[in-house]
Structures are given as C-alpha cells and as structure tokens.
Amino acid sequence: MLRSLYTRLQRLSARDDAVWWMSAISFAESSFFPLPPDVMLVPMCLAKPKRLWFYTNICALASLLGGLLGYALGFYLFESVGRMIIDFYNAQESFHHFQEMFAEFGPWFLILKGVTPIPYKLLTITAGFAHLDLTVFILCSIVARFSRFYMIAILLHFYGPQVQHIIEKRLMLVATVLLVVVVGGLLSFKFV
Fold this sequence. Notes:
The chain crosses the membrane at residues 54-78, 171-189. Keywords: Membrane, Transmembrane, Transmembrane helix. Residues 53-154 form the VTT domain. It comes from Azospirillum picis. The chain has helices at residues 2-12, 18-29, 38-47, 52-76, 78-88, 92-105, 107-114, 120-129, 134-159, 162-169, 171-190. The radius of gyration is 16 Å and the shape is globular. By secondary structure, it is an all-alpha fold.
C-alpha cells in the first residue's frame, strides 16, 4: 500500500501544480499522513534545480504549519482525534516513550528528533499532549524542520541526482550526520 502511495506521489511531483501538492503532503505529514514530503521534494528539486531553495522553504514552512495542527490535536483533541492517530500507526509505545523524553529533555528532544526521519506527527501530537509551551514548540519546530529539509537541499545542491539514491537508502545515516551538525552548532553557542 505504501509503495503504491509512494509511486503516486512521485508522479504528482512532475505536475505543474506539484508545489501545492508537496505543500499539502508536508502539512499533512506533520499531523497525520504516513509518507514524508521528501518523496516529492527530491524529484521536484532534481527536475528544477534553480527552484531548489524555494521548494525547500515551502516544504519546511508547510511542515511547520502542519506541526501546529498536530500540536493542537494533542493539546485539545487528544482523546477524540490524537489517540486515534496514534492507534492507527500502532505507535502507543513510541507515544509513551516520547512523553518520558519530553518530561526529561523538554524542547531539546523535539529538536533532536525533529530532524530525523521518524514520523514528525508523533512528536507534534505528543508535544501538544505534554503541554509543551507553544512558543517553545514553534521555535524548536523551526530549527528542526528547516534543518531537516535544508539537509536534503544542500545534498541535492552539491550532488544532484546521485543523492536521491543515498537519501532513499540511507536516510537514517544522513539524518544522523545532520543531527551531529545541529547539536554541535547549538552546543558551540552554549559555550561561547
């Protein structure tokens, strides 16, 4: 089922209205949709390299806005909608683990996990449920989501079509490298 959806999304990336579809996918993925917008972002950037940064910014912004919906689902509608999404993805264990991590590490957990390929919807719903301060949630989401999509854009900018294979096959490794860079950057500000 996911492979079929993946193929359909890649076909959408070739359409004239692809940026709208990518925005919708990016928005929805942050709160309930199963596939990440990378499925469309990568082929769109490869097809039109001059629009790479435009597409990346739109994707990150849509993800941020979708994250606000996920946060609202966790904050206001967890029992009616949020729990249904968690159950649909059979992610009850991850949800409980994320609650513990939010209690222990707070916003740092959101930043660190927000750049990885784990489903961002689980983070946004959990952050809302945990009543993480909305301003803190927004700031952390900006750092996490723009970092995540900029990592892809930078790779596409320098390595072009070869990177699509790397991203699809080694996404966790790529995300880990970005995570090290982001954490290193944040720690450098702390010690300056």
